[in-house]
Amino acid sequence: MARMKFLCDSDRCIECNACVTACKNEHEVPWGINRRRVVTIGDGKPGERSISMACMHCTDAPCAAVCPVACFYGTEDGLVLHDKDLCIGCGYCFYACPFGAPQYPRVGNFGGRGKMDKCTYCAGGPQQDNSAVEYMQYGSNRIAEGKLPLCAEMCSTKALLAGDGEIIASIYKERVQQRGYGSGAWGWRTAYREELPA
Amino acid sequence: MMRFVMALALLLPLGGAMAQQDSGAPAGGAPSVQSVAPEVGSGRGGANNAQQPSSTAPETQTGGPRPAPIAPRPRVAVEPIVAPPPFTARSDTDATALEAQRAEQGGVIEGAVSIPNQAAGILVQPAGRDWRGFRTRILTIAGAVILLGTVFILAGLYFLRGPQRIDAGRSGRTLHRYGLFERMNHWMVAVSFVLLGLTGINITFGRTLLRPVIGAEAFTTLTWTGQAVHQFLSFPFVIGLMAMVLVWARDNLPSRVDIAWIKAGGPAAKGHPPAGRFNAAQKALYWFVIGGGVLAAVSGYLLMAPGLLDNVTNQQWAHVLHGLMAMVMMAAIIGHIYIGTIGTEGAFEAMATGRVDYNYAREHHSLWVEERVAEARRLAAGAD
Of 3.30.70.20, 3.40.190.10, 3.40.220.10, 1.20.1530.20, which CATH number belongs to A4-192? Predict the structure, then answer.
């Protein structure tokens, strides 16, 4: 199986936030939770750039390493998913995550964290694929339907790429070669210990 | 009206003549470049036709003194707007290099977000990797070493040296040491602390030690309950600590006797160096528990409600402080429990019944006994 990754070409991202909206709509994500967000570096200054960021499904994921109840599991596609039935909402994965991906509904004691929610790469959770209970907890399972994550699929400038890591890396390299510039693959060094030439 | 029309009629042939002249060479004397205020022909009020002033005296201004003219605004130095470099020349940001730099030198890659959660503006925080190392290695290994080390040392002490006996044997007479409030407060703090410690140990080590034994679902149920217990019991613990400050702080103030007690060798001394109601080791433990408890409580409350610390770096530091403080305090309290129960004969009944044996008190807290005896004598003398 392929190793699935995300790649955001910040020279193409126009900060339209459509990926954010599409994700929220596709998965009926609860109020106040953003599985994906767009961060603009140097906002309003020359050379500003926007990067769409969600869970990067890291190699040797820090969240999985620190979880006190070991609720994370990997898939054949290299995705990092979690079991909400096991999660206790302690917040450790948020402390460890380099990308701020884990989100928590504020339902616990003292306004504390509920069960963690994060990007599933549109691959649902541990339950049976596309079952009602899976949809309730994790949103839709597009991977099981043979589709790629919606955020990348509907990106209007094709800045956000999802799919086999080698294929999207080659697409990005080709772009950089053709246009003569590029800022590199954001988060790849941290998430995959892999460097794409800028 | 009639006169105006007639004047207009008179002018018409004149205009026609001028138009004819324009079509040919420019009239002599006509300016080659038209001035801003066009010159007026002699027929329409030239220089001589202008209204002449009736007096040569300088004009006086009307409407009172004119306000002083407004000073011109001083020039503000304006930074010239530099044209941005062309797109092809601006790839100065290199994600990989930026991430490598932050990973080595600390800091986060941060930007602006248009969602309400402003903390999401942190794009990449490589410090999470260091915190991961703390949680999976430093805290677990150091915690295990501190806790097991304490237990081993105490076990060695118990089996090699044996418990501290009352040298003179029990006298059969007892002395009032702790009041009901003091004891109840002590046990409230003790029960809270033990449960806080056990649930905390479960969070830190349970994944490795307990989860494989009882299974994932049962372990989640236990840990879920445990974290709720941990949060709720923090309140009796902190309230109890504050009560301890009120009732015991005065007797725990350091004094000269303590220096002598330490110089004599403290707990390892031959015989029993004199001590007041609390000896120097007890005082040290007291202040350590108060200070450490405050630190652990503050960092714990900051972790408890994520809204209080909306910055992941601060939350990591709060956890580091909380975890280390908790481990050291647990080790200290294990020592306290040993000394207060099986380690010292006659010590436990102080917190259980409130009364200690007279010989125990005389050996461990000689100055306090003298105080109590003197006070009793004074009371007896007063009653006579």
Answer: 3.30.70.20
Which residue's structure tokens are 């307990």? B210
- Taking only the tens place, the pLDDT of each residue in B41-79 is 555 555 555 566 666 776 666 777 777 888 888 888 888
The reply to whether residue B131 touches residue A95, judged by beta carbons under 8 angstroms, is: yes
Which residue from B90, B124, B131 is facing A190, i.e. has the nearest CB? B124
**pLDDT class for A194, splitting at 50, 70, 90?**
confident
State which residues form the domain around B268.
127-178+249-383
Residues in a beta bridge with B110: B122
Judge whether B89 lies within some domain: no
Tens of pLDDT, residues A46-55: 778 999 999 9
The tokens describing B282, both together, are 């007890």
Residue B138 has, within 13 A of its CA and on its CB side, a CA count of 12
Regions of chain B short of the pLDDT cut 70: 1-55, 58-61, 85-92, 384
Residue B327 lies in a domain: yes
B80 touches chain A (CB under 8 A): no
CA–CA dist B91, A9 (Å, integer): 12
CB contact under 8 A, B124 and A182: no
CATH code for position B369: 1.20.950.20
Parse chain A into domains and list their residue ranges. Answer: 4-192
Burial class (CB in 10 A: 0-12, 13-18, 19+), A59: middle
- Please give the mean pLDDT across all residues of chain A: 92
Class of residue B345 by CB neighbours under 10 A (exposed 0-12, middle 13-18, buried 19+) = middle
Test mutation, B81, B82, B135, B319, chain A, max A CBs within 10 A: B135
Establish if B112 belongs to a structural domain: no
Q: Is A91–B315 a contact, with Cβ atoms under 8 angstroms apart?
A: yes
pTM exceeds 0.90 for this model: no
Across the interface, which of B89, B114, B122 has its CB nearest the CB of A100? B122
CB of A68 within 8 Å of any CB in chain B?
Answer: yes
Contact B87 A49 (CB under 8 A): no
